[in-house]
Amino acid sequence: MPKPSKPSKSDKKSEQLGHHHETGKTQDLARDTAPHSEKDRLTDNFGHAISDDLNSLKAGVRGPTLLEDHLLREKIHHFDHERIPERIVHARGSAAHGYFELTESLEQYTTAKVLTEVGKQTPVFTRFSTVAGFRGSADTPRDVRGFAVRFYTDEGNWDIVGNNIPVFFIQDAIKFPDLVHAVKPEPHHEMPQAASAHDTFWDFISLTPEAMHMIMWQMSDRTLPRYFDTMEGFGVHTFRLINAQGQSTFVKYHWKPVNGVHSLVWDESQKIMGKDPDFQRRAMWETIDQGGTLEWDLAVQLFTQEEADGWDFDILDATKIVPEELVPLKVIGRMVLNRNPDNFFAETEQVGYKPTNLVQGMDFTSDPLMQGRLFSYLDTQLIRLGGPNWQHLPINRPLAPVANNQRDGFMRHVINPGRVSYHPASLDGGSPQEVPREQGGFVSYPEQISGEKLRRRAESFSDHYGQARLFWNSLEPIEREHLCKALQFELSKVETRHVRVAMLDHLEQIHPLLASQVAVALGEAPRADEVVKPGGTADCAEEMELLAKAEAQPTASGGLTKSQGLSMEAQPPKGIRNRVVAILAADGVDGAQVDQIKQALETEQAKGEVLGQHLGMLDGGAEAKKTISNSHMVLFDAVIVPGGAESVAALLEDGDAHAYLLEAYKHGKPIAAYGEGQQLLQGSDLAALVGKDLSEMKALGILSADAPNMEEFVQTLSQHRFWGRPALKRISN
Ligand code: HDD
């Protein structure tokens, strides 16, 4: 039996911080975690010690390689087979271990122990992903994010395989392959990568009115999360909970990030794809490696059949939310991610989630999208992981004991003794016993079902625009502007005119002004009289006042015009945990100020990183682990220029340093300059464009003072973005 691996850097660091990483799953994985020691003898895969792994066996030093070279052949054989098919969707992803701790019992609603044992920590493995891009694509395209959580409960695995958007594109799983084929790179030339801005996607969408609510979310900043832990997660479908009396309650799951909900802006996303395609993956890794955590509250919406019967939308329709005003969110626990995987392939790549991983006390509903998923996930693991025994893989095996009479198949790991491979059996002491419901056996909810066998959508699924309007109404003006610009961008990339026009027809159903703004950018006639100036302008921002007033009339919304929780901007700031601030420095920097800044940020569990003109110790006493030119403003949440006359004089001459300020300005990020650092601000294009009076710039998130005022800075950073900045004509916003 292999020994458990040595504690990683993160284990050591967080032991100091008092985090407890050990869960039942950590110990379970340790059974298969290979020891690593420099003193190990090098062997082949069957334990034969190898004396020379650098030269193949040849006939003479300059002669051909011999077929006999079994060591060469085995090594290359393994290499040749090291790739498995990537996931058909959600191929690009990254995961971490942690735990879920229940704080509120749902005993009234379910017998599932994971939802009734308050204080219990259940190990989790959570994977975040984009949908469309290949495994090697970048982290930050405009795309829906997968949010898949596995709970290793005492009663078996429970997976919530969700997204960061609470609704979906389609109502019926039979359309899923078409949706995915349409959004993936086009089949003839395999372009574009990780992007929905192309003809086949919008062609499919324009022919799929039920997608319109999801399209509004997809075109909003929701698909540009800043970090994994600044995005929400949703179970999307309506599920059931079943209590000890056998009564069913409907439930929807929501993950609420403790750090608040924040997004990138589109220009920033695109730049990050080049500057650091691993941006979000790296941020999660580094946070955890440095002893930090990523955290979400789990909230539920609980409702009855009678309540659902009174609404003007169908809870089985995955293109609809249940507005929070109809059913408030109840927080029941917290998920904490605190341990990086030891091996990407063995854990993150080989994890196979499936919505059929439910524990007793829970059940599915007849949502036709979910029903198809119940087949698809099990099926896909066969091709991806190579056979029916993928549940033996360490990351997939449950902590709950497994006992049944299934045997055989590729890669069977378990040695099941005895002659019995069937059930029921009386030989060999009989087979494992079925478990009655009262003792925790899974029983489906005995829902009354009757009807004709047919292929038809229920009439209650037919409203496709009502909740799209609800979403639109609920957004803040800046969010509407971004949504409008996203539609202009995406549809302007569509080369086929009739597809663009068909999309305008749908947008008109949501709001004629929105349709008009997009129409103008596409060179089409506006759809509303009030619209824009004669000749039109493609600038959503200029017409924002008009758009801000543009309320639509929702339907299928439980009578609501707006709903809380849909706007990200309307949510209050939640502190600055895990944010990263660039500190621009050169030789001669004021090291004491740098220390003060870094410490103040650390107190808030945020991070200051010194970017120098060269690596290593800078004169003045700060250490630069990155440089101004090997990094970029888009990778940071804010920028600070500390004092130090010599340092600031050098930065004034450094075009890259100026670019940090301009980019931060353009993306609405906090900027601060202290001591001599203020000269950089005054000498930059910003001062010339915005006005030289630095004190007036505070309201715009631009701070300056003779010495760091970190309380003010932290408060400013917690606001994330300052949208009210005057546009700078010389750099496009
Ligand atoms: Fe799916 C993967 C989320 C509809 C078929 N899906 C996958 C993952 C997430 C989701 C997060 C990645 C899991 C991981 O990290 O390994 N999928 C969703 C959501 C949906 C949804 C929230 C709608 C509410 N999916 C959906 C449908 C089907 C699939 C309707 C098929 C009928 N999904 C798959 C799949 C994948 C997958 C092909 C690819 C890899 C995998 O399952 O394990 O089976």
From TrEMBL:
Ranges of compositional bias, category Basic and acidic residues: 8-43
Domain Catalase core span(s) in chain numbering: 43-431
Keywords carried by this UniProt record: Heme, Hydrogen peroxide, Iron, Metal-binding, Oxidoreductase, Peroxidase
InterPro entries: Catalase, Catalase_AS, Catalase_clade2, Catalase_clade2_helical, Catalase_core, Catalase_haem_BS, Catalase_immune_responsive, Catalase_large_C
Top EC class of this enzyme: oxidoreductase
Entry annotated with the keyword Acyltransferase: no
SUPFAM superfamilies, sorted: Class I glutamine amidotransferase-like, Heme-dependent catalase-like
EC number: 1.11.1.6
Region (Disordered): 1-44
Similarity annotation: Belongs to the catalase family. HPII subfamily.
Family matches, as PANTHER family: CATALASE, CATALASE-B
Protein name per the record: Catalase
Organism from which the protein derives: Deinococcus piscis
